[in-house]
User: Which sequence fits this backbone?
């Protein structure tokens, strides 16, 4: 089973990297970009086949390590 | 003072720290490997040094914070043992939940390696008794992610409880955005935990303890700690 955990910065947390990317896109002439916030994506292969158990396991992984919940939110998806 | 320095893969300031501790305490610190599950018996002070543990993968300090030795450090801190984290060590202590908040990418996105001026906010702590309150000291920083961030409630508590021990200031001790090198919230350079026995700071006091460095302003921190344990003995 495959899964994806997406980690993004909470709103209100300053994102200097996102700002720099935003500036670079403007420099490149990519029109219409209002703002950019960057994050991380983790693609994870799971050994078992139980969807509910997978979601619980991914939540545990995100809480314990993948995200720092002081500044980040995460989303868990079992993708198939 | 018996000190123990934690060593993680990618740490590179452990020898500077060992030298400073040896020079100021007259004792050789123990080097403790990250897979160890216990600290040496009789440890007074645990130091988490600077560097790039695990190559700063995932987030600075995130992986080191989950190493086996950190359970022993958590227990040691829980019973009142003194813990000092410098630079990556500060990041590790935040990731381990021993200190609140997080260290984000420097505001200007550049790695900063230079001397800074710090105001010592209090002298009545185990870590700062070697200084006078309000004293300005000059010590180096070397980091890419030292921009301290915490939620409003945490910041209010840190300020209200006098837990901000060091702030980036101008040489005359005034708060000045131009001297807040990494853009840290409220120019915070170092904080204490609630119980007052865990200190995390981005600057490197261990690099300014010898006259040959031209400045010895970092010595007060170590001298104060040595004095603290001498008084306790």
Assistant:
């Amino acid at each position: 089973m495959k899964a994806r955990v997406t980690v993004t910065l909470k709103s209100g947390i300053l994102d200097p990297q996102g700002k720099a990317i935003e500036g670079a896109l403007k420099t490149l002439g990519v029109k219409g970009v209002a703002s950019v916030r960057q994050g991380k994506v983790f693609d994870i292969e799971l050994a078992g086949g139980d969807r509910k158990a997978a979601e619980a396991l991914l939540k545990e992984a995100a809480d314990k390590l993948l995200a720092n919940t002081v500044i980040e939110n995460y989303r868990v998806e079992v993708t198939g | 003072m018996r000190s123990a320095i934690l060593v993680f893969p990618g740490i590179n300031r452990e020898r500077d720290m060992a030298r400073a501790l040896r020079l100021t305490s007259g004792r050789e610190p123990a080097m403790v490997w990250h897979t160890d599950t216990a600290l040496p018996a009789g440890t007074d002070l645990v130091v988490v040094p600077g560097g790039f543990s695990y190559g700063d993968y995932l987030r600075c300090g995130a992986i080191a914070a989950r190493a086996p030795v950190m359970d022993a450090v958590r227990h040691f801190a829980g019973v009142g043992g003194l813990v000092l984290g410098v630079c990556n060590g500060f990041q590790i202590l935040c990731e381990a939940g021993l200190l609140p908040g997080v260290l984000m990418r420097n505001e200007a996105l550049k790695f900063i390696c230079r001397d800074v001026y710090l105001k010592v906010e209090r002298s009545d702590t185990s870590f700062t008794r070697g200084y006078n309150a309000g004293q300005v000291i000059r010590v180096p920083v070397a980091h890419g992610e030292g921009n301290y961030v915490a939620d409003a409630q945490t910041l209010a508590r840190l300020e209200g409880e006098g837990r901000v021990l060091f702030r980036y200031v101008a040489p005359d001790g005034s708060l000045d955005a131009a001297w807040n090198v990494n853009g840290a919230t409220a120019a915070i350079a170092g904080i204490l935990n609630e119980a007052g026995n865990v200190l995390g700071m981005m600057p490197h006091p261990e690099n300014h303890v010898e006259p040959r460095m031209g400045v010895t302003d970092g010595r007060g921190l170590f001298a104060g700690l040595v004095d603290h344990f001498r008084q306790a003995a």
Observations:
- Chain B has a mean pLDDT of 97.
- DSSP finds five helices and eleven strands in chain B.
- Residues 3-232 of chain B form a domain with the Rossmann fold fold (CATH 3.40.50.880).
- Residues 219-232 of chain B form the longest helix (14 residues).
